[in-house]
Design brief:
With about 120 residues, the protein is mainly alpha-helical. It has 6 helices and 3 strands; from the N terminus they run H-H-H-E-H-E-H-H-E. The chain is globular.
Length: about 120
């Protein structure tokens, strides 16, 4: 995880006019119905130290998709960038696992670090 000064520097280096349109788009788009009706096996890799997306989001996603496979890794937000090796290993294992029915090991949270 970045030191507080590094995070502050990173945040200060991002121009507000670059962030504002992204935030507006996130607020505008609603894919709830599409997500709930999708039957593609889906893996959500959460960061245990994510201060942007809380554990309540996982709960909400699971209410929409009880078959959602979730894993929590010892990382902040942007798991793929901050814990790339761990994320790649999990994605690889998930893509190769042919036993993904509810009740399999993918159907329940697996924690590789502290839970959120």
């Amino acid at each position: 995880m970045c030191a507080p000064d590094t995070r502050r520097g990173l945040l200060e280096s991002v121009q507000p006019d670059a962030v504002a349109p992204r935030v507006r788009e996130i607020a505008r788009v609603d894919v709830t119905e599409a997500f709930a009706s999708n039957s593609t096996p889906t893996l959500y890799i959460a960061g245990a130290h994510d201060r942007l997306v809380g554990a309540n989001v996982i709960d909400a996603l699971r209410r929409l998709r009880p078959d959602l496979h979730t894993l929590v890794v010892d990382a902040p937000h942007l798991v793929l960038q901050r814990a790339p090796r761990e994320a790649a290993a999990l994605l690889n294992a998930f893509s190769l696992d042919s036993n993904r029915e509810v009740g399999s090991r993918w159907a329940f949270p697996m924690v590789m670090g502290p839970a959120p």
